Amino acid sequence: MNNYPKALERLIQELKKLPGIGRVSAERLAFHLLSQPGERVLNLSQALLDVKEKIQLCATCFNYAQGPRCAICSDPNRDQSLLCVVGHPQEVVRFEHTCEFYGLYHVLGGLISPVNDVSPDDLNIEELMLRLKEGHVREVILALDPKVEGEATSMYLARKIRPLVSKTTQLAHGVPVGRDLEFADEITLGKALRGRVAI
Length: 199
Hints:
44% of the residues lie in helices and 12% in strands. It is of the alpha/beta class and 199 residues long. The chain folds into two domains: 6-54, RecR Domain 1 (Helicase, Ruva Protein, domain 3, Orthogonal Bundle), CATH 1.10.8.420; 57-198, Dna Topoisomerase Vi A Subunit, Chain: A, domain 2, CATH 3.40.1360.
């Protein structure tokens, strides 16, 4: 049993709730924060509050944004005819780091997963259909995690969007099957984008 003061123990318990942080890492972070000047800890706490107050989902693509629309949707130089569909906002950043894609994105907000009680109605699929019905998109790239849920979501979407766009593609294999896209390096993602195939 640890005999930490209540405030310190509370901080450790809150840090443990972060992904990938166990008890030992939480203690290390808590002690590090204790050793920092008050101003540095205040800056961290203000950054946490700012991100919760100022970051929202883009009204168009559901990427993270600091305003009603994200920087990508607001950029007039992006190719409006290419739409890359991803599961989560952090995957947009991964694709942007490849410097291989200059179109737009649509974030589903997850993947179809009956086991986890996630149905198509829980995702931003209707909003995707509305975007496609506008008629500006000629190719949709389904860039979903190469695992069972991603494949199921891709097949579901492919059937729905086929009547609305002239070309539907998915990432080429090269992204490891069974892994999340967020763990793929930029080179692998870039090659997968270049080698995408029709479905």
